[in-house]
Design goal:
The protein has a single domain, classed as Winged helix-like DNA-binding domain superfamily/Winged helix DNA-binding domain (Arc Repressor Mutant, subunit A, Orthogonal Bundle). The chain is built from six helices and three strands; from the N terminus they run ααβααββαα. The longest helix is centred in the first third of the chain and has 22 residues. It has a three-stranded antiparallel beta sheet. The radius of gyration is 17 Å and the shape is elongated. α1 packs across α5 and α2 packs across α5. By secondary structure, the chain is mainly α.
Length: 147
């Protein structure tokens, strides 16, 4: 296998484990995506959330309603449109994002535990390059690199 294939396989396996960590907290991939988007990009209209997450508006509406029942998000009227609403994190939602992110970072840190500082630096450089390339390939809905 070449470097790209090794990295691809590693990302696939790591992604699965990171999703499992979210599932242990009751977070589906779309729920975590919405929480992260709200945490790092601020309150969003339902339509904007749907567009940025690549799902239909009725789908994101159902997701948001479920998240409201769990006190992860709250909806408030949009200031400029009486029919529209804005979704924002609750304090509980913000805490869940922090917890989920910390658990995933801890898992990655443990996975890298046997690497020396030089090896970690090489991986960090590769990660920055992959993120920059990925961000350049998507529209303005690209996620922030710190998610």
């Amino acid at each position: 296998m070449d470097a790209a294939e090794h990295l691809y396989v590693a990302l696939q396996h790591a992604g699965r484990r990171l999703r499992e960590l979210d599932e242990e907290l009751g977070l589906s991939p779309i729920r975590f995506a919405v929480l992260a988007r709200l945490r790092y990009d601020g309150p969003q209209r339902i339509g904007e959330l749907a567009r940025r997450e690549g799902v239909a508006q009725p789908t994101i509406t159902q997701v948001v309603q479920g998240m409201e029942r769990l006190d992860l998000v709250a909806r408030r009227p949009a200031g400029d449109d009486g029919r529209g609403c804005v979704v924002e994190l609750t304090g509980h939602g913000r805490a869940v994002v922090r917890r989920a992110r910390a658990r995933k970072i801890a898992w990655v840190d443990a996975a890298l535990g046997d690497l020396d500082a030089g090896q970690r630096a090489v991986l960090a450089t590769a990660a920055v390059a992959v993120l920059a390339t990925a961000a350049a390939k998507v529209d303005d809905g690209a996620r922030s690199p710190d998610r």
